[in-house]
Design a protein that fits this description.
The complex is a heterodimer of chains A (about 110) and B (about 120).
Chain A: E1 4-7, E2 10-13, E3 19-25, E4 34-39, E5 46-50, E6 54-55, E7 63-68, E8 71-76, E9 85-91, E10 98-99, E11 103-107
Parallel strand pairs in A: 2-11
Antiparallel strand pairs in A: 1-3, 3-8, 4-5, 4-9, 5-6, 7-8, 9-10, 9-11
Chain B: E1 3-7, E2 10-12, E3 18-25, E4 34-39, E5 45-51, E6 58-60, E7 68-73, E8 78-83, E9 92-100, E10 103-107, E11 111-115
Parallel strand pairs in B: 2-11
Antiparallel strand pairs in B: 1-3, 3-8, 4-5, 4-9, 5-6, 7-8, 9-10, 9-11
The chains are: A mainly beta (about 110), B mainly beta (about 120).
C-alpha cells in the first residue's frame, strides 16, 4: 500500500501570504496520479488538482500543484480567509488508493 | 445539474448489514468510474472502494475487503455499497464520488452510518 505523509499537520498563514503544503509518498506514484482536495467544515471534499498539477474546473489559479515521483506540493498563492480548510492529497496510481492524513490551514 | 444523491445510512447493530445507494443525474453515469470514500467522526478521509464505468473492475481497501461489495446499475444510474458484518469501526460518513481523469470531481452530500448495539 502506498502511504502518504503530509506536512505540516497545521499551517497558520496571514491573508495575502503563500502557503506551501507537502505530500510525500512511500513509493513512486505511477504517472503522477496524485490529486489534492479541500474540505471545509462538515462539507464534502472539493477536487482542486489532479494529475499532480492540473487544476480542476472552476478552481482559482491561486491554487497550483507540483512535484513528481514521491514528492508533491500544493501551493496557495495570496491566501484568502475562505481558504481555511483541511487539505488532503490522494494517490490513484496503485490500488488500494490512499489519502494522506491532511494538512489543516488556519488563517491568522 | 450534475449531482449525486445518497440514501441508505442509519444506525445498525454490529454484525448486521446495510446497503447504501447513490443516484446520479445531470451526466452520463455509464461513462464514469465511481468511488466510495468514508470519514470517521473527527478523522480524515479513507478510500473504501472503486468500480470501473462498466462494472468490470472493482477494488477495495484492505479494511473492508471481503465484507463490502461495490456495484452499479447503469440503467438506473445508481451506485451501491453493500456492507456486511459491520463493525463499530465502520461508523463514518460515507461519500460517493465520480471519477474524472482520475480525480473525484463530483461528490455526494454524504450519508451517516452508525454501528452500535
Amino acid at each position: 500500500e502506498v502511504v502518504l505523509t503530509q506536512s505540516p499537520g497545521t499551517l497558520s498563514v496571514s491573508p495575502g501570504e503563500r502557503a506551501t503544503l507537502s505530500c510525500r509518498a512511500s513509493q513512486k506514484i505511477n504517472s503522477d496520479y496524485l490529486a489534492w482536495y479541500q474540505q471545509t467544515g462538515g462539507q464534502a471534499p472539493r477536487l482542486l488538482i489532479y494529475g499532480a498539477s492540473t487544476r480542476a474546473a472552476g478552481i482559482p489559479d491561486r491554487f497550483s500543484g507540483g512535484g513528481s515521483g514521491t514528492d508533491f506540493t500544493l501551493t496557495i498563492n495570496r491566501v484568502e480567509p475562505e481558504d481555511s480548510a483541511v487539505f488532503y492529497c490522494q494517490q490513484y496510481g496503485r490500488t488500494p488508493f490512499t489519502f494522506g492524513p491532511g494538512t489543516k490551514v488556519e488563517i491568522k | 445539474q450534475v449531482q449525486l444523491v445518497q440514501s441508505g445510512g442509519g444506525v445498525v447493530q454490529p454484525g448486521r448489514s446495510l446497503r447504501l445507494s447513490c443516484g446520479a443525474s445531470g451526466f452520463t453515469f455509464s461513462n464514469h468510474g465511481m468511488h466510495w470514500v468514508r470519514q470517521a467522526p473527527g478523522k480524515g478521509l479513507e478510500w473504501v472502494a472503486v468500480i470501473w464505468h462498466d462494472g468490470t473492475n472493482k477494488y477495495y481497501a484492505d479494511s473492508v475487503q471481503g465484507r463490502f461489495t461495490i456495484s452499479r446499475d447503469n440503467v438506473k444510474d445508481t451506485l451501491y455499497l453493500d456492507m456486511d458484518s459491520l463493525r463499530a469501526e465502520d461508523t463514518a460518513v460515507y461519500y460517493c464520488a465520480r471519477v474524472l481523469k482520475g480525480g473525484m470531481d463530483v461528490w455526494g452530500p454524504g450519508t451517516t452510518v452508525t454501528v452500535s448495539s
